[in-house]
Amino acid sequence: MERLLKGLSPDGEALLNLIPGGVMQCRNDAGYTIVEVNDGFFDMFGFTKEELAEQFQNRFIEMIHPSDRQIFLIEVERQLNKGDRLSLSYRVVCKDGRYKWTASSAQLFGDEREQRFFCIFLDLTEVRDTQEKLRLSLEHLEIIMNQSSNVIFEWDLVADEITVSPNWLGKFGYAPHYDARLKKEELLRHFHPDDMEPMAVLMDEVKKGAPNSVIDIRISTAKEQYIWCRLRATTQYDAENKPLRAVGTISDIDEEKRTMEDLRRRAELDALTGLYNHAEMERRAQQYLQGNPETICAMFIIDVDNFKQVNDRQGHLFGDAVLAELAAGMKKLTRKSDVIGRIGGDEFAMFLKDLPSSQIAEEKARKLLDMFEKLFRGEKYSFEVTCSVGLAIYPWDGNDYQTLYHCSDLALYQAKSQGKNQYVRYDPRRMAAMERIGYSSLGAAIDSDQTASGKSGNLVNYVFQILYDTSDIDAAIDAILEIVGRRFDVSRAYVFEDSVDGTYTVNTYEWCNEGITPQKELFQHYSWDNVKDYQELFRDNAVFYCRDIHALAPDQTALFESQGICSTLQCALCDGQKFRGFIGFDECSGLRMWNKEEIGMLSLIAQMLTTFLLKKREADRNEQVMVQLNAILDMQDSYIYAIRKDTYELLYLNHKTLRLDPSAQAGMTCHKAFFKRDIPCEDCPLTGATEVYNPQYDVWTRVHYSTMKWGDSDAYLINCADITEYKRLLCKEGSSK
After folding, report:
1. Would you say 365 and 301 are in contact if contact means Cβ atoms under 8 Å apart?
2. What is residue 233's three-state secondary structure?
3. Is residue 415 over pLDDT 90?
4. DSSP alpha helix (H) spans, 533-680
């Protein structure tokens, strides 16, 4: 072989052939005519010397990918205008028809008669493939992030301007501003008036440097309806630790909020009349009295006279209708701010706030008597209902709910003992004897109150509070199943959750009473093919009640018999219209008749569990996606890490980066972790450097970065491909000249 450079010794020629890459000498002409190549060039591209001449006429330009030729020519001209060295990257055809990505370094030499390039080629195909895999992985991550329904915002505290992401339009049906950048007052006008003040307080706290903030607010839609949203904000600081901006998300929690409000309302209200139950009546009145109001208030206790006769003559359904009408009449006589409750079977209470005088309270009592007496006159089958009323006045008769209630109770007894159909105001001198014997006119059983405000009502509130306050939903559900199971004395309480595709179900939670054999391990992957049409059992109000399991289809009966079940009550867990599983209560000691109150109570508890359980499962799925994305990044053959914008704080490091430096960890700045510097590097890739040398590890890298969101923060994702061997070869080539 002719020597590639004049004066090159045979040992030098042998050395060129040992370079793990291609070496080429070509003329600086229109086709970059090949003069000579080394053995590595033949190995890299697969052609022989004869094939280069036959297929390309030794014109190297013909070997370059057609899409890269124009860029190649432009770059050669641009770099020669600055000197006699070239550094290029492009694709070159191989004998098998594939193209290889190459990194080419070239030196121009010669005189005016003839100029030639001396070129060294390195194969970058594997690096490019790795970069493409990373690009696809990042694109995957970006797609997932873009599919998020959360609105992202940034509040520039210095300019006092707020920027929101484009999906605000899709969420609320309008753009808050034509360029999505607006003063905070323009954004706040879309908030519910009642949320303005708490939002202003939160924004003041952010300005003062509060690191994290959360608030639930209502934002109007294009249809002028308000939806509940949860706003989360994280504050960013400048070099002097002064608040610079706040970034965060606005997520739609409307369905969750309204479901919780509905559950809370149902737990507070008497089922028959829609009035507050006794417990909620007491809570609201006592809460107001704790503020020591300076105005007059009045407590009424109202008992329907001879109501037992109405039930006996007309039936309980008619009696319930009468109570409902009386409740509606009392609502019309009071203001929205007053508190009305059903505290017994046919007993009611009213707490009236801010009265001008005690005479107004007595006038209200007379109107109550008149309303009761006239309410059912003029009916086809006319009848008369009267009531007795006990009245106590704040602050003279008491300063707290229990005292006022007790005084009203004594006054009610006096009204009944004097002939009924009248009101009596509490008088301590006249009622001293009754107080000594501890008499109370109240305490009659009340069906709806047993459900809403008695033991069951307390149970609903207790269950709701456990779910609302818990940070461990699994432990909370286990505790609730035991509480409910013991309260209703069942054999077994449990939850089944369906797979995502609905083909099988899993027993996820279970509580068993003493002496009952657990079944959870037997139902960890139970196919619905084993029992046909099971979900059809829930078509009646999403509740399946079976007193005797032998009345079911044979395969369904066999399923229950295998678990020793005699009777069962199951409530569906539904996500919208989609069946997601069920919560069940089994009786194994014999047949059991479930009454209406028990079914209603367990259905309400099932709805509560559905709300919180589905929310947890959604969070679990999101966490699984993040684990999968981390696994993708950890498999890349590049140093990949994420840093917070402006502060350079490390947010994430993949496995390859941690193997290079195990001491590096999230929270450190990148320049401190990788370069042992207290300030950012002069040749930081964020300033434009594409190749960086790290003396701490003796590693050269080619760096690419892109902006991204890390949670609520602005960040950079940085990819560093190791090109150390390539750089070392260049150094050897330079030193050999």
Report:
1. no
2. strand
3. no
4. 554-561, 596-634, 655-660, 670-675
Give the tens place of pLDDT for each residue, 614-631. 777 776 666 676 676 677
3-state secondary structure of 103: strand
> Tokens in use for 209?
């440097």
**CA-CA distance, 414 to 136, in Å (whole number)?**
84
Supply φ then ψ for residue 534, to 5 degrees. -65, -40
Q: How far is CA 388 from CA 119, 270, 409, 441, in A?
A: 109, 21, 11, 11
pLDDT tens digits for 49-71?
Answer: 999 999 999 999 999 999 999 99
SS3 115: strand
Q: How far apart are CA 227 and CA 220, in angstroms?
A: 6
SS (H, E, C) 617-632: HHHHHHHHHHHHHHHH
Task: Establish how many alpha carbons lie within 13 A of residue 646's alpha carbon, considering only the half-sphere containing its beta carbon.
Answer: 12
The pLDDT tens digits of the residues spanning 132-175 come to 776 666 565 555 445 556 788 888 888 888 888 777 888 888 87
| 3-state class (DSSP) for residue 212 | strand
Q: Which two tokens stand for residue 608?
A: 């509560």
DSSP H/E element including 374: helix 358-374
Dihedral sign (CA 292, 296, 301, 302): negative
Contacts of residue 112, defined as CB under 8 A and 6 or more positions apart, other chains included, come to none
Collect all residues with Cβ–Cβ distance below 8 Å to 5 and sequence separation of at least 6.
12, 25, 118
The pLDDT value recorded for residue 580 is 84
Q: Which amino acid does the sequence have at 84?
A: D
C-beta of residue 688 within 8 angstroms of C-beta of residue 611: no
Residue 226 amino acid letter? Y
What tokens appear for 538 in the block? 């829930």
Token code pair at residue 387: 């009531």
- Helical (H) or strand (E) element with 45: helix 39-45
- How far apart CA 190 and CA 219 sit, in angstroms, is 6
Tokens 């979900």, residue?
A: 535
443: left (phi over 0), alpha (psi -120 to 50) or beta: left
> What's the average model confidence in pLDDT over 478-501?
86
pLDDT of residue 72 exceeding 90? yes
Q: Which two tokens stand for residue 26?
A: 């070509």
Secondary structure (DSSP) of 13-34: HHHHHHSSSEEEEEESSTT-BE
Give the tokens for residue 601: 């109570």
Residue 105: strand, helix, or coil: strand
**Cβ atoms of residues 348 and 329 within 8 Å:** no
What secondary structure letter does DSSP report for 502? S
Q: Which amino acid is at 217?
A: I
Helix (H) or strand (E) holding 402: helix 401-417
Query: Cβ(163)–Cβ(181) under 8 Å?
Result: yes
pLDDT of the residue at 693: 86
Q: What angle do CA 81, 86, 89 make, to 5 degrees?
A: 125
Q: Are 478 and 509 in contact (CB under 8 A)?
A: yes
Q: Closest Cα partner for 729 from 151, 40, 225, 261?
A: 40
Task: Give Cβ neighbours of residue 396 (< 8 Å, ≥ 6 apart).
Answer: 358
Helix (H), strand (E) counts: the chain: 23, 27
Asked if residues 218 and 195 have their Cβ atoms less than 8 Å apart, the reply is yes
Pairing state between β 161-164 and 699-710? unpaired
Nearest-5° angle of CA 508, CA 512, CA 516?
Answer: 125
Distance CA 114, CA 29 (A): 9
Sort 336 into a burial class: Cβ within 10 Å, 0-12 / 13-18 / 19+.
exposed
Read off the tokens for 379.
């009916």
Strands, E assignment, 628-731:
639-644, 650-653, 691-694, 699-710, 713-722
Residues β-bridged to residue 356:
none
pLDDT band at residue 32 using 50, 70 and 90 as cut-offs: very high
